[in-house]
Design goal:
The protein is of the alpha/beta class. It is built from five helices and eight strands, in the order E-H-E-H-E-H-E-H-E-H-E-E-E. The chain has a six-stranded parallel sheet, with helices on one face. Strands 7-8 form a two-stranded antiparallel ribbon. The longest helix has 11 residues.
Length: about 170
Amino acid sequence: HLEGPFLNPRRAGAQPVEHLWPPDPVLLEELCHAAGPSLRIVTLAPELPGALPLVERLVAHGVRVSMGHSEATYEQARAAIVLGCRCLTHTFNAMAQIHHREPGLLGAALLDDEVTCEVIADGCHVSAPALRLLLTLKGPSRVALVTDCTAALDAPDGEARLGARPL
């Protein structure tokens, strides 16, 4: 799962902003070549200029495209879903929230039966009522439980790092 580098810097979350790039087909090809057949999922922000052609290219190569780290509007998210985005990374986190006049990326994903919503259900990233709302709207077959695990998982006691950042 390549979570980035085509993410919205305003919604970077734990991703280092200095490693984010605007959508670039040449860089995408380099990343796909480096990853080879192990690349199965790419998360990107569909509102970024040039993101939609990358969605088409990835889907054509059999890579699952997930939306995340994004400020996409409802319409921008719908356009990405029409092109083949079938997943939402870290539902509720690192994205604009639903507003009654702009349901945004989250609203588009919650309303589309083809989109699976990944969620970190650790009681910290998403509250129990929000998790219940997600399960009620999507059903268990369209919710994927994921962790927020880092390389620190098997590290010895003491300070751990995510790239250059202390955790």
